[in-house]
Amino acid sequence: LIESVKKGIALVNLYIISTVEFIKRLFTHRSLEGAGGPVGIIAAMGKGAQKGFKVYLLLLIVISVNLAILNLLPLPILDGGQALMYTIEALARRELPENIKMTIHI
Question: What percent of the chain has pLDDT over 90?
Fold first, then answer.
């Protein structure tokens, strides 16, 4: 059991590193090569399910890690953007004016 937990943590760390590297490459090379949308995800899930339950679970892990990391990006609409907004307000020790918040979100 302990060895399985260690291997699981190592695998998730590998996926985290891969996702961060992909995001870096996305901005530095300005290329969407290797990216897929909802249709690509569904197709991959279908192929994974055909290959067996283990592959299907690995795909679920990859999708979960990707969504978690992307959600933490400091974009206004995502949780990372909200966390950044709250951090700025905490450092300023006051709430940002509503018109500034709306401008940032727009």
Answer: 17
